[in-house]
Each structure stands twice: as C-alpha cells, then as structure tokens.
Write a structure and sequence with these properties.
The complex is a heterodimer of chains A (167) and B (159).
Chain A lengths: L6 H12 L16 H17 L6 H29 L1 H9 L8 H10 L1 H34 L18
Helix pairs in contact in A: 1-2, 1-3, 2-3, 2-6, 3-6, 4-5, 5-6
Chain B lengths: L1 H16 L3 H11 L12 E2 L2 E2 L4 H20 L10 H20 L6 H28 L2 H19 L1
Antiparallel strand pairs in B: 1-2
Helix pairs in contact in B: 1-2, 1-3, 3-5, 4-5
The chains are: A mainly alpha (167), B mainly alpha (159).
C-alpha cells in the first residue's frame, strides 16, 4: 500500500455498500447483481486514485474494495442481523410457501420460530453470509474502479514535483 | 469465489431435500438481499427452487465459460483490461431486460433471462481475470519498491 490515506475512501465506499442495502426499495438495486457493492467499490477506487501519489494497480483496487466491503459488510450485519431475527416469522412464511418445500419442515420451522436461540443463530449466519457476498462484489468493484479511473501511465510523481509555490 | 457461490446456489435446494432445513434456510436468507428469489422465475433442483433467480444463476454460471473462452481471444497473461465497450455490450442486454421488467414494458421468458445473465457473467469474467493476473504477477519486491518510491516522493515534496 502507498502512503495515501485509505481510510476515507474505504469509509465512503463502505457506507455506499452497507446503508442502501438496508433501506426498503433502495435496496432493490442489489437484485441487479449486488449493484450497491459494485458502486461502493468503484467509488472507493476513484477516491483512492484521486488521492494517490503513485499509480494504482489492480491489487490496490482489490484491497480498497476489500476494505470498503468489510466496512459495508459490518454496517449491514450490525443492522440486518437483529432485524432478521425480529422478522423471522416472515422469512419462515416465505420459505414455507416455496413450491415443493418438504412438508416435514413445518415442525422444524415451528421450532425455529419458538426458539430465540435458533432465531438469533439463523439470523446471524444469514446476515454474515450476505455480508461476505457483498464484500466479495465490492472487491470486484474496486478492481473495476481502478480500470475505469486510473489513467496515469507513469509510476510515481517525479522528484521536485510540488516544490513550486503551490496553491 | 464463483465456484463457492455456485455451490451455495445449488446447495440450498440440495440441503432442503436431504434433511438440512436450517442450512438451506440460511442460504436462502443470505441471498435474499441480492435476489428477488421468485420461484416462477427460478430454476429448480429436485423440485425445489435454487437460491437465486434464473438471471442471477446465469450470471454466476456465466463466469465459468467466460474464463474458459478468454484465452481464445486474449492473452491469458495480459494485465490490461478489455475495452469498456465489451463490458457494456455484455451487461446491456441484461440491464435492459431488467429495467423493462421493472417498469412493466415486458416480462421476458426464463430462457432469455438466463441467456442475458450468462452473457453478463462472461463479460464480467473477462474484466476480472486481467485484474487477478495483475495481482498474481506483481512480485512482492515490486510492491515494496513502489511503496519505498512513494515514500521517497513524499519526503522530497515535504522536505
């Protein structure tokens, strides 16, 4: 990693990944191959490219995407897991209505609904897996962001650059 | 990652049919923020819907042929991404189909959804691979060299 501040791009990218995924209707954009994760990764890469002294590589794009994805994943997990546990009844109803779902599952789902431990466990695991999937797409978004916005052909800023009067 | 996601997508109905309902429920719920999961728009395995719709299934499965045909039209060790027009061309049919469905212009058959998803997946694969090649081919010495050159530039600028 170069010495550029990576925190702000990762934070902004992470907010784009995590917050819209929690807002009703806005989150539907994620039905398009986790669009918010791609956007978050691309924005993080763009911000990093604007700040970076040296040319970014695809590895840098993947790293900033990973950082943004982790931030977004944590944001999503912290909010979605308790919500999911609270709305477990709706999830069970939806799954039970799925065509050809084995009928003997009614007893299992009833146990899930009645057991706080099972509700919380299922919500935690599901949210964690969803967060990891979002983070994975954000990594790809970071790489794509570098491809789109990193236009420099050289390596680093030449010696003496920036020693003028400045602004 | 692509194979892992495909395994989860197919694994959900498999777990459903083989006595692991909670595992299946975890997978279905994990994909619920990423896909509408409407059963009538999804493929089924052993009578149970996959964890994502046909379009999303096409995208994830499309990554594999995308990686397989890549060497036929580009050098595998090339670190340069294809022109953006290819990505746009690959994703545009899926995007148009998706938007048209959302606004109610038309509802495409499952085969068309899958085909546009596969095309998008293949386009995405052609953009991912050069990035992965770049990461793999950049030796750690080069990464340290870039870092120390950047540090020297910062010293010159601030000194």
């Amino acid at each position: 990693m170069n010495e550029t501040d990576w925190k702000k791009p990762a934070l902004i990218g992470g907010l784009i990944v995590g917050l819209p995924a929690l807002i009703p209707f806005v989150s539907y954009a994620n039905f398009c191959l986790c669009l918010w994760s791609w956007v978050g990764g691309i924005v993080a890469a763009k911000m990093l490219a604007d700040r970076s002294v040296s040319k970014l590589s695809f590895g840098d794009g993947a790293k900033i995407g990973l950082l943004a994805g982790l931030v977004g994943g944590v944001i999503y997990f912290v909010v979605a897991a308790p919500l999911m546990a609270w709305q477990m009844d709706k999830m069970v109803e939806k799954l039970s209505a799925t065509p050809n779902f084995p009928a003997e599952w009614a007893e299992t789902f009833l146990r899930v609904q009645q057991s706080l431990g099972m509700r919380v466990g299922l919500a935690l695991l599901s949210s964690l897996l969803a967060s990891l999937l979002m983070a994975g797409f954000t990594v790809l978004g970071g790489m794509l962001g570098v491809a789109i916005f990193e236009k420099r052909t050289g390596g680093t800023v030449p010696p003496g650059y920036g020693q003028g009067p400045g602004l | 990652m692509a194979l892992g996601v495909i395994a989860l997508i197919i694994g959900a109905p498999w777990f459903a049919r083989h006595g692991y309902p909670v595992t299946a429920a975890v997978i279905y719920q994990a994909f619920s923020p990423l896909c509408h999961q409407i059963p009538s728009r999804s493929f089924h395995f052993d009578g149970v819907p996959l964890a994502v719709c046909a379009r999303c299934t096409g995208v994830y499965f499309g990554l594999i042929p995308g990686l397989m045909v890549y060497p036929l039209w580009r050098r595998v060790d090339s670190e340069r991404m294809p022109h953006r027009a290819w990505l746009t061309a690959g994703i545009a049919p899926m995007a148009i189909d998706c938007v048209a469905g959302v606004v109610g212009m038309f509802s495409s058959p499952i085969a068309f959804r899958t085909a546009t998803g596969i095309l998008a997946g293949m386009a995405i694969a052609s953009f991912i691979l050069p990035g992965l090649v770049s990461i793999a081919l950049t030796p750690s010495e080069d990464r340290r060299s870039r870092k120390s050159t950047a540090e020297a530039s910062n010293t010159v600028v601030s000194g």
